[in-house]
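One example given next:
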Amino acid sequence: MQTVFFAPEADIPDLRYDAAFKAVFASETPQSRKALNGLLSACIGRSVSVISLNANEPAPTSAWDKQIRYDIACRLEFGELADVEMTLHPTPNEPFREEYFAAKLFVSQDIHGMEYRELRNIYQINILANGVRCKDEELVHCFRFHDALHDLSFNGQMHIITVELSKAENLAREKPVHEMSAAETWAVFLRYHRDKEKRSLINEILGKKEDIAMAGETAQAFSKEELKYFHEMSKLKYELDMQDRIARMKREAREAREEALEEARKEVREEVREEVHQEGREEGSAQAKRETAQKLKTMGLSAAQITEATGLAPEEIEKL
């Protein structure tokens, strides 16, 4: 294997951004394909090979459009399908998106002329560059259908896999490279490949892991123009993400205000309705007392007796 290493001053594109990530792992070169095979195998937990890269959806025209697409779509050996996404800033809605597109990927298989048991496994792989999804120390999680009440697995063919790069910090600090699993070495590489203070650690990984070395070789081969393009795309993506986030926050704030206003209106309507009912009840009660007093007066009872029976004042009884 040709030795690959990053020089101390080398400017490596940030693979946590979409443009650079796709350029390294979705290029039609032996190095890129070997790198993608290694990354997928590490995430899935067994050796897999990419047979073909599938055509993805049209290029996004807005930040919102970007959120309905995945970076890499591919077909594996034995007909299995996989989507791979690098997410720099996961949002609270990310799990819902992952579940939706895992289902979409699964039903994209042509069932005509097949039995359901012939459907292939699908893998929705989500590499989260920042934040913590699961409150534990595990780097990789694989979610499948599960009966939480009875702790039973459905053992289905849909796999939603998350890799949290933020959890690579302890690995880089405490675990020797030769003791790291495939997933751990990939996580450390993806987290720290641009960190010049970690360059000796990254070079050790490049020297021991051929698939990661192929990713490093591909990333390092970009020209200055391509690096500039990646930086510009990263900046644009960040700006689009911020615009989308600000727009979403404004929309949520507006909806919250409208909801609060409607709730206040509802409370006012209820109060007015209750006041009207109360006035009606009081008016009805007063009229009933007057009618009773009139009957008692006709029967010859004194004003004092009628007052005691109805609570009406003597002056009001005299007017009846």
